[in-house]
From TrEMBL:
InterPro entries named among the record's database cross-references: MFS, MFS_dom, MFS_Na/Anion_cotransporter, MFS_trans_sf, Sugar_P_transporter
Domain called Major facilitator superfamily (MFS) profile: residue spans: 13-426
Transmembrane intervals: 52-71, 78-97, 163-186, 232-253, 273-294, 306-324, 330-352, 364-386, 398-421
Main location: membrane
Keyword tags: Membrane, Transmembrane, Transmembrane helix
Native species: Mucilaginibacter xinganensis
Membrane topology reported for the UniProt record: Multi-pass membrane protein
Name the UniProt record assigns to this protein: Hexuronate transporter
Location(s) in or outside the cell: Membrane
Superkingdom of origin organism: Bacteria
Length: 430
């Protein structure tokens, strides 16, 4: 009854963001599932594949910095529109590539286009939700990353078996243009939206310490101003140390299960579906936890910090994956870690809107996410080197064990640095 009195159109916005993020990760994940097919056709080594992943991540990093600033300037609706057009076209262009170099270039195009997703989505959440609801809303739309990753292991092998790898890229890339139609019809900022009631508008802007400003005519904030704030570096540190772990889960897990447990990636992969389904629970549950604690009366910073510490601890058991004697033991450990990552991700994104005013959120998210992508540039290169070295020695499993150990402790280190930089996550005045 309470929700009906307040109004609920903001949850329609979350649904739009959810499906965009699902498509974003479907397009991103597909190459990991096609890796065995493509490495045979193009004679890729692990190092070649590492270069392709690095090219995507480097372009994604540059795009995040650019798109974050652009979206703060031109607004969420137009910014998201440009982003999904670019990445959907790039995704479809994979189908005409004839060489490894060609894959590097189209992956770069995909990275630039996809970089607009999270700066736009986080800004949209800040525009449509009060602080006490943002982590939960972020957790819901962020779970789209997991749904995309769950859908891919079922959809891609089916398309591959019937139509070939080229059509897998074309079909998944075209889905973005379908979403764009709904986005243009249903999205607008609250002050201009005819579906928003006065009660819901007041609820959206109920944070006492936030100035009610909607639109793209508000004063802009320069990068150098943001980079002078400790709160920016708090967000940067958290993303730098943990985002690369998610890239590993996306791009190397299919290969890990195939090489270690002889999983056939040409068929729908139940282990991958289970892992990525667990991350959906992690994203929504993780976002809900800090929102629930705030509603219970906890200070915002304490609710976020305690939640993130819990998630960091939940990743640690992945270091015992080396002792797994069967695929389902490995699935359980990796599923827990991947779910904890998405819980962490939903919460850390929300800290940006906790610490910064709405007019700077996309820029801050872009800067921090760029740092995460930069970490993602070096980590895949390191992964490729480790795996190729141990593969030649006939001990590929040892290579994965080293990588899992790095993953296990990355989040605790990130949490400690964030806490030291900003113990109470004091709000920035610009």
């Amino acid at each position: 009854m309470k929700e009906n009195r307040v109004g609920s159109y903001r949850w329609v916005v979350v649904a739009l963001l959810f499906f965009a993020t699902t498509i974003n990760y479907l397009d991103r994940q597909i190459i990991g599932l096609l890796k065995p097919t493509l490495e045979t056709q193009f004679r890729w080594t692990e190092i070649d594949y590492g270069h392709i992943v690095t090219a995507f991540t480097a372009a994604y990093a540059a795009g995040l910095l650019i798109f974050g600033n652009i979206i703060d300037r031109i607004g969420t609706k137009l910014g998201y529109t440009i982003s999904i057009i670019l990445w959907s076209l790039a995704a479809m262009l994979h189908a005409i590539v004839k060489s490894t170099t060609g894959f590097i270039f189209v992956r770069m195009g995909l990275g630039i286009g996809e970089s607009g997703n999270f700066p736009a989505a986080i800004k949209a959440v800040a525009e449509w939700f009060p602080r006490k609801e943002r982590a939960f809303a972020t957790g819901i739309f962020n779970s789209g990353a997991n749904i995309g990753a769950v859908t891919a292991p079922v959809l891609v092998p089916w398309i591959l078996g019937i139509y070939g790898w080229q059509m897998a890229f074309i079909i998944t890339g075209a889905i973005g243009f379908i979403w764009l139609i709904f986005w243009l019809i249903f999205y607008e900022i609250p002050s201009k939206h005819k579906k928003v009631t006065t009660t819901e508008y007041e609820h959206i802007h109920s944070d006492e310490d936030e100035v009610v400003v909607d639109g793209v005519d508000e004063p802009k904030v320069k990068w150098e101003t943001l980079l002078s704030k400790r709160q920016t570096w708090t967000f940067v540190a958290g993303k730098l140390l943990t985002d690369p772990i998610w890239y590993f889960f996306l791009f190397w897990l299919p290969s890990y299960f195939a090489s270690t447990f002889n999983l056939d990636l040409k068929k729908p992969s139940l282990p991958l579906v289970i892992v990525y389904s667990a991350t959906t629970i992690g994203s929504i549950g993780g976002g809900y936890l800090s929102s629930w604690l705030i509603k219970k009366g906890w200070p915002v910073f304490k609710a976020r910090k305690v939640s993130m510490l819990i998630f960091a601890i939940c990743v640690v058991p992945i270091i015992t994956a080396r002792f797994a004697t069967g695929i389902w033991q490995a699935v359980g450990l990796i599923a827990l870690a991947a779910a904890a990552h998405q819980a962490w991700s939903a919460t850390i994104f929300t800290t940006a809107s906790d610490m910064f005013p709405k007019r700077a959120i996309s820029s801050v998210v872009g800067i921090g996410s760029m740092a995460g992508a930069v970490g993602g540039i070096f980590f895949p290169a390191l992964i490729g080197y480790i795996l190729e070295t141990y593969k030649e020695a006939g001990h590929l499993v040892i290579g994965y064990n080293i990588i899992f150990t790095i993953c296990g402790f990355a989040y605790l280190l990130a949490w400690l640095i964030m806490h030291l930089l900003s113990p109470t996550m004091k709000r920035v005045e610009l």
